[in-house]
Design brief:
The complex is a heterodimer of chains A (562) and B (51). With 562 residues, chain A is an all-alpha fold. Helices cover 71% and strands 3% of the residues of chain A. A 3-stranded antiparallel beta sheet of chain A has the order 2-1-3. The longest helix of chain A has 40 residues. Chain A starts with a helix and ends in an 8-residue tail after the last helix. The model of chain A has no long low-confidence stretch (mean pLDDT 87). Chain B has one domain. Chain B is built from 3 helices and no strands. The chains are: A mainly alpha (562), B mainly alpha (51).
Chain lengths: 562, 51
């Protein structure tokens, strides 16, 4: 249960529904399932095995692990990526954590009476400070600041005093409770029907159809302009109504069916699916490699990895996805949901579901509190890679390491808290670190495992102490398919997001706003400073790494303690 | 919701539920396995070293 509890986080209940809503359709779920099999599982296993191997040599940080495995002078600098990712993600993850506890307490205290989507969207913007920079920096229970201060202090108190085992014990009770609450919520969502009788098409069955139907039906302009986007319709009655609208349009509108193959040809869909697998399973984060390093030689990394992954997938697919997206369609309609992304969807939609439940304030508070607990376990786990790194790089004890990391993350989280306008700092860091760097690290890890170590040595290490065998099909997957798949979608991603090629039509398209935010007339100060922050941390960690005696021993293949 | 959508949904939910259930069963029925599997656990050895 501890394994399952530690695996579950905000990605399951908040991030996944946002992506499923954005890309809605069975094709996304198909890409997601394939990504799980050929990316998530193999890279997860590789991380577990590499971490345990490094731990046997006395190294507990990603730079130490990479240096011990690759044994060259540059490996430790590659490993820095595995420290930067969790440390920077912590800086904004703790913000989302504070939203959870803020919503929980406000529910329980009767402060949340949100009756329609307009109110929930407005409250979310006010609470998070998305309305403008520094607008969340006041002491009110309706904004993030006081909750963030409490959460930040709570995390560091636990980890500084070595009390984080206490939260782990709480999670052994809290996580099964979260699953039970999610099942109750699922039951309520599936019986919502159409909340607004005046809009019968906006119902839960159509919400399920929006998420799972392999073929999409769209109403499109016969001669679309650059600003015209297709409008998706779901459900037999809605499609009949749309056909009537098209017939009456005099040829200006048309019905278009988008099959599963055509949807799968969109590289953005694959990128989103693979990115969610990374985020949700903590693969490519630099977290698993650190915790695996504390395992014993004969501990079972194969079943540990599979159990953690399957717990994640159960919570994500069977609970997280089935609750939020159908409810969102029921309250906002397909048009209101399509294109919505990010963790905000859950905060905007779930309060509406709770308002339709008996004792909704209690259940709402309990649900967001359990999410908060799940988030605390994840955020504490994100601190350990940084703590282990500072301990090793500077040869200091845990409390000194926690203090240094505390100062660094206080600055970083304060930065994210200040630049809340349109959640720009959070969004920029999530893209460049939470997506881009994770892709880079995951790709390096699977290449090191499959090519530097080699499949035979890697599988021998993996199977040490394992109760189950990894099926043979994962040999070619790890050696060839996974790296090729990652490199392919990474290239497609660069072409589309960074260089602005429209990969569906082959024409030159607009450059991603993540790039225009950094350069040119449309540059955003918050985005530029966010990237500058990451670069500064990289340089700081690089200087620490270069002076480390431990890493000098690791790259020579020497045990740290010999 | 179309029939194909219903099938995709039921299949997906069934697969992840079965996989999770099978893992729990395997862990609980393999001797000493509960001692040998780990997740992200917070009582790391460096805590003891600093106390």
């Amino acid at each position: 249960m501890a394994v399952a509890g530690s695996a579950v986080g905000l990605g399951n209940f908040l991030r996944f529904p946002g992506l499923a809503a954005q890309y809605g359709g069975g094709a996304f779920m198909l890409a997601y399932a394939i990504s799980f099999l050929i990316i998530g599982l193999p890279i997860g296993w590789a991380e577990w095995a590499m971490g345990r191997y490094a731990g046997q040599m006395g190294y507990n940080s990603a730079p130490g692990a990479f240096a011990a495995i690759m044994r060259n002078r540059w490996a430790k600098y590659i490993g820095i990526i595995g420290v930067i990712i969790p440390v920077v993600i912590y800086m904004y993850y703790v913000m989302i954590e504070s939203w959870c506890i803020g919503y929980a307490v406000n529910f329980w205290s009767g402060n949340l009476h949100l009756k329609d989507a307009g109110e929930t969207v407005g409250y979310f913007a006010k609470f998070t400070g998305a309305t403008g920079d520094a607008t969340a920096m006041s002491f009110s229970r309706d904004v993030a600041l006081p909750w963030l201060l409490g959460v930040f202090a709570f995390n560091f108190y636990l980890i500084y005093r070595g009390l984080s085992g206490g939260i782990e014990k709480m999670c052994k009770i809290g996580m099964p409770l979260l699953i039970v609450l999610a099942l109750v919520l699922l039951g309520r969502v599936l019986t919502l029907g159409a909340p607004d009788a005046a809009r019968p098409h906006d119902n839960v069955v159509n919400g399920l159809g929006y998420l799972w139907n392999p073929t999409k039906v769209q109403v499109v302009k016969a001669q679309p302009g650059p600003e015209d986007k297709p409008r998706e319709v779901v459900g037999a009655a809605a499609i009949e109504a749309a056909k009537g609208e098209v017939a009456a349009s005099g040829g200006t509108l048309a019905i278009r069916e988008v099959g599963v193959i055509e949807q799968l040809a969109n590289p953005s869909l694959w990128l989103a699916a693979a990115g969610q697998i990374f985020f949700s399973l903590s693969v490519g984060f630099g977290v698993i490699i650190v915790y695996a390093s504390y395992m014993k030689k004969n501990d079972d990394v194969v079943l540990s990895g599979l159990t953690a992954s399957s717990a994640n997938e159960f919570c994500e697919v069977a609970l997280g996805g089935l609750i939020t997206v159908p409810a969102a369609v029921a309250f906002l309609g397909v048009a209101g949901v399509a294109g919505q992304a990010g963790v905000g969807l859950g905060f905007k939609i779930l309060p509406l579901v709770f308002s339709k439940m008996p004792a909704g304030a209690f259940f709402g508070g309990a649900f967001f509190f359990m999410l908060f607990l799940a988030a605390v376990t994840s955020s504490i786990s994100m601190l350990q890679p940084g703590i282990a790194f500072v301990e090793e790089a500077l040869n200091v004890g845990r409390r000194a390491s926690v203090t240094i990391l505390g100062l660094l993350t206080t600055f970083g989280t304060g930065f994210v808290l200040y630049f809340t306008g349109d959640l720009k700092a959070l969004d920029t860091l999530d893209f460049w670190v939470g997506t881009f760097l994770i892709f880079v690290l995951a790709t390096i890890q699977i290449i090191v495992f499959g090519w530097k170590w080699g499949i035979d040595k890697g599988f021998a290490e993996l199977h040490q102490g394992a109760a189950i065998g990894v099926p043979w099909i994962f040999r070619p997957i790890i050696k060839w398919i996974c790296p090729a798949f990652l490199l392919f979608i990474f290239t497609m991603w660069l072409l589309k997001e960074i260089f602005g090629f429209d990969l569906t039509t082959g024409a030159a398209g607009a450059v991603s706003y993540y790039v225009t935010d950094l350069f040119g007339d449309k540059a955003s100060k918050a985005a530029q400073l966010s990237v500058a922050l990451v670069v500064a941390i990289f340089v700081f960690f690089g200087l620490m790494t270069g002076r480390s005696q431990a890493y000098a021993r690791a790259e020579k293949g020497l045990n740290k303690h010999d | 919701m179309t029939t194909a959508g219903l099938i995709v949904m039921l299949l997906s939910v069934a697969v992840v539920t079965f996989l999770f259930g099978w893992c729990i069963w395997k862990v609980l029925t393999t001797p000493n396995e509960t001692e040998k599997i780990h997740g992200v656990e917070f009582e790391t050895p460096d805590i003891d070293a600093d106390k």
